[in-house]
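FAQ: What does the model actually see?

It sees only this:
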Amino acid sequence: MTSNEILVKLNSLSNPKNVEGMARYGIRGKLLGISIYELRKIAKEIKKEIDNSDKRHTLALELWNSGIHEAQLLAVFTDDPEKVTEKQMEAWAKDFDSWDLCDQACTDLFDQIPLGWSKAVEWSSRKEEFVKRGSFALMAGLAVHCKDADNKKLEDLLPIIKRESTDDRNFVKKSVNWALRNIGKRNKYLNKKAIETAKEIQSIDNKTAKWIANDAIRELESEAVQKRFK
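And it is asked to produce this:
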């Protein structure tokens, strides 16, 4: 299964009507209109057929470089985390042109490697909207998927969340909120620390900060979340 064969298959599945719907939800780029569910099925087929990690990594790079949105998502779903380099992370981040591509890359691939922690911190100061979103998407993903991370590693991210809580760009503020909520749902200790951070953010004289804080507090103090820790 080559990248060209996969691209031919993807083009055969294109759905112009879905493209219109995706555009309405802020998904941009060279779109074919293929659902994420269909792409995940194709990704399973690719992994089953190509069990050599080097070949699969090369395939992922070729799919990403096609510039086609759905092919780039397939690249995320099929790449081997152990083959991902810092150079690749930076190159792909520069290509982030929509929230879903950013989120899938950061919570389905980049959060599976040690570099994810350093990039979560580094990208939080970047000006590009979707690279900065990637910082907090990484934090959200690490809080859920990195089971062996100790509390301190996640607690150390909270001051960054507070610092960036006044960025009023829609895709950034939602990811800041997402990271805060996911850290706060990790365990009882981090729940307490996240709520404390949210209340500090709440006191900032800024509309965006107050929205982030209020939304996070509502969920983190909810009965559903608190039940997890009893």
